[in-house]
């Protein structure tokens, strides 16, 4: 089966999936027009609004696995000429217990989801079906945790490393929220919060200005986490 | 939580006096602490004998005998007026002591606001169970003296804990930053109405990310009422900011007595733990 990916978010995850599929016998191609049968959609919101549908011309029967970090899959499906599309989310670091969340566009066939499940299982990954929406479940909750940690950081509750340390020691988080921000990328977190804010129209998801400033500045999470020490 | 902190201190070699005004609570707590120590000794988990440790603990029905105390740790219910009164009294009764509050939801500065010397109050927020959880949030009130803060940090270390300095703000670090872990999970549940299946799915997804427990099983462990009170406290302290809004689902469960493990039924059912 020929597979390729479009879009630039989560490069490490892209690499992991494509390399894994290559080892599992898939043919990984990098350019459109190769009639890929499986396409991973890693477009950021900006890239997606720049019409990746063009990239899919001639690949209308491909199974598209669309990362749900900038919108839910029902929304993505509406804007592509795709017949077979399933939303997914997988958050690094990827380990034995990692779970891939899968979501169907509203009204789509369950067979397509079963196909998507089969792809991830070939990579040794567990899957679970979840309701559709921006960020599905895990990335959405994480983005809100990051936002809250940013809010605490900005308010001067404690410095970044202390906040992360407290969440690990006080409530057994595997890593602190600001370390998660590093894992997901500030752009991805910000994009997801903005997508949630648009989807729900609620102030609840408003990204904290500190998150926005850090994203604008290009300062890496690894660096800002050491501030104040 | 008070008896957990007392047990911790006694295990670390401190002489401890526990002051509990209600005799039923005192008797129950004393028995539970004793039974707990005996059980730990049987598993080989104590460095000293259960008797040695429990002999360091004295139980009092009142606040007498605190003149020589070097540290007081308050762990009474989360009622600001009660705590304010208590700290004004403790100030007189324990002239040599650091006066620490284990409050999880109230402002340390507010608790100390009736003291004649508020430089003596400090926040020492333990996590449940105090004998096992390594973190203590240490909070300076607006007027807390630097030496008091430093002594508190040293005390945490001698109790084998990791102290983290935290500003006197609603929920400090952990109870504030953790709110979306529960709140967003509850909101997803509210949006889809398939509680039985979706609670398990959400817990599974979060465990897949490396969390030891998912939000719903964790709420069951903490107690839905305790967790709701923490959410409500942060929500009110931030004057109704939507980020912290409590969930009608949780309110419904608490009101109908589904408190989690302690009542045998929360988001999940627990066979043998109903009291």
Account of the protein in words:
The complex is a heterodimer of chains A (229) and B (275). By secondary structure, chain A is of the alpha/beta class. Chain A has helices at residues 11-23, 45-49, 73-79, 110-122, 138-155, 160-171, 177-184, 186-200, 209-217, 221-224; strands at residues 2-6, 27-28, 38-41, 63-67, 84-89, 99-103, 126-129. In chain A, helix 5 (138-155) crosses helix 7 and helix 5 crosses helix 8. The radius of gyration of chain A is 18 Å and the shape is globular. Chain B contains 12 helices and 7 strands. In chain B, the strands form 2 sheets. Chain B has a 5-stranded mixed beta sheet with strand order 3-4-5-6-7, sandwiched between helices. A two-stranded parallel ribbon of chain B has the order 1-2. In chain B, helix 10 packs across helix 11 (224-237). The interface between A and B is large, with 46 and 43 residues.
Question: Which properties best describe this structure?
Answer:
heterodimer, A: 229 residues, alpha/beta, seven-stranded mixed sheet, globular, B: 275 residues
**Quaternary state of the chains:** heterodimer
Q: Give the averaged pLDDT of chain A, no decimals.
A: 91
DSSP E strands of chain A, number? 7
Gap from first CA to last CA of chain B: 19 Å
Largest interface: A-B, 46 and 43 residues
Question: Which residue ranges of chain A are poorly predicted, with pLDDT under 50 across at least 5 consecutive positions?
Answer: none
Strand order of the largest sheet of chain A: 2-1-3-4-5-6-7
What is the general shape of chain A?
globular
Task: Provide the helix percentage of chain A.
Answer: 40-55%
User: What's the total count of β strands of chain B?
Assistant: 7
Strand percentage of chain A, roughly?
5-15%
Q: What is the N-to-C succession of helices and strands of chain A?
A: EHEEHEHEEHEHHHHHH
Which structural class best describes the helix and strand composition of chain A?
Answer: alpha/beta
Beta-strand residue fraction of chain B = 5-15%
Sketch the major β-sheet of chain A: 7 strands, mixed
Number of helices of chain A: 10
Largest sheet of chain B: 5 strands, mixed
Strand order of the largest sheet of chain B: 3-4-5-6-7
The class by helix and strand makeup of chain B works out as alpha/beta
Mean of the pLDDT scores of chain B?
Answer: 95
